[in-house]
Amino acid sequence: MQLVWFRQDLRLVDHPALHAAVQQARAQGEAVEAVFVISRAQWRHHHMASVRERFLLERLNVLGAELARRGIRLHLVEAPWFAEVPAALAALVRERGARALHAMSAIEIDERRRDEAVSAHLSVPCRFVPGCCVLPPGRVLTGKGEPFKVFTPFSRAWLREIAAHGYSLYRAPEPMGAPLGWQPLSLPARSAHETRTLRDWPVHEGAAEARLREFIDDAVLEYGARRDLPAEPGTSRLSAYLAAGILSPRQCLAALHSRLGTLPLTRDEPGFAWLNELIWREFYRHLLALEPRLSMNQPFQLHTRALAWRHDEQAFAAWCEGRTGYPIVDAAMRCLKQTGWMHNRLRMIVASFLTKDLHLSWQRGEAYFMSQLIDGDLAANNGGWQWAAGTGADAAPYFRVFNPTTQGQKFDPQGDFIRRWVEELADVPATCIHTPHDGWRHKGREAYPSPMVDHAVARLQAIAMFRQLPTGGDEA
């Protein structure tokens, strides 16, 4: 028997490890079985949001049924901590008589160490294959064979590699035998928060594929013009499916390719704006794989470890709860808390506010996001936070400080998104919605907090923090 270990790749289509196991089993006249290891203690140690855990477990119940219909049994194994996984898998291998273990390679350091321990502990071959990116980490390097440290040259090299060598998809496997019975994992009733959030994220693979097709057919050509407007449905809303591996990035690439007849390779071509976002995802995943310290709360630019971040629990709580006095920031944070998701433009705004206005560390923001997001993904979350904080892979980011007022005016000009989430401002007209305390009397004026910092002053202080670094801010 060939055993497939599912992790953050909960799909049947374009699953290289599943494909390899099926091919091997067919060649040798064997069966295929699958396993998923539930590591709740480790997940919580990694700040996994409760709604994301629920999303994964509900997806597992559906995946188990999908596999069973193809004659593949899914085993659900409990191993609370990664350190317990090798023994748990070894017991399953012995019990089921597995001759090899197949899985897709991990990029996070704790997961990689877990996989190394599994390989050392098991008595059968462990075959880890890449699959979390279109191009595997290590495939896109500088002329000196080093990882790219800035996105734009990485993007150019990634596009050249795709243009030269293309990409391929694996189909879902044909049935390996007669359909099997499936006993789903028993889950408690959903909380109100889970019900509200998961309503927007059905867990069937077909639902994810349908959302991808709908976006590609109806919205991808307008993505560049609408993606920054949080009050409009201009984004793909695929992030949770990509983070859980219900969709693969190659499926996204193939859908865009099919829609346009070719892949856009320059900024002027239709569809490039969305492709560029897929490349950003690749960039952060490559960095995480090639720079293990990014998985360990370390900045990409090591000299920024000396930044004098403040420690202010009241300020952090106000940011988390959406009580900063800056409407676009507060609307974004309240939306996150209630829905488990946040628009990408808003993620940049609130991250800049925490680090450059409140001068609190990006690590705190990164961990809080992971504790809330249904699409929590270490590579994307870490990359985004370090970009906003000025500690990450970028050309010269330390002086980039978003003005939360002008960002709101530019991307939510009528205040529609703000009014949806900040009830105190429901009656404020568009002319005053971004500065509600400046000369406008409204019902919620007393309830809505005044701005907790003066942005102009905080901005200068943030820039000074970087300029005072031992190696000099200009080297950031």
Automatic annotation (TrEMBL):
Cofactor(s) this protein requires: FAD; (6R)-5,10-methylene-5,6,7,8-tetrahydrofolate
EC number per UniProt: 4.1.99.3
Catalytic activity: cyclobutadipyrimidine (in DNA) = 2 pyrimidine residues (in DNA)
Gene Ontology annotations of biological process type: photoreactive repair; response to light stimulus
One MF annotation (Gene Ontology) recorded for this entry: deoxyribodipyrimidine photo-lyase activity
PROSITE patterns: DNA_PHOTOLYASES_1_1 (PS00394), DNA_PHOTOLYASES_1_2 (PS00691), PHR_CRY_ALPHA_BETA (PS51645)
InterPro entries according to UniProt: Crypto/Photolyase_FAD-like_sf, Crypto/Photolyase_N_sf, Cryptochr/Photolyase_FAD-bd, Cryptochrome/DNA_photolyase_1, DNA_photolyase_1_CS_C, DNA_photolyase_N, Rossmann-like_a/b/a_fold
Cofactor annotation comment: Binds 1 FAD per subunit.
Root EC class: lyase
Residue span, Photolyase/cryptochrome alpha/beta domain: 1-137
Keyword Lyase tagged: yes
Binding site for FAD: 223, 235-239, 274, 277-284, 375-377
Alphabetical UniProt keywords: Chromophore, FAD, Flavoprotein, Lyase
Record-marked site positions (Electron transfer via tryptophanyl radical): 309, 362, 385
Alphabetical list of NCBIfam families matching this protein: PRK10674.1
Family from the record: Belongs to the DNA photolyase family.
Known role: Involved in repair of UV radiation-induced DNA damage. Catalyzes the light-dependent monomerization (300-600 nm) of cyclobutyl pyrimidine dimers (in cis-syn configuration), which are formed between adjacent bases on the same DNA strand upon exposure to ultraviolet radiation.
Protein name: Deoxyribodipyrimidine photo-lyase
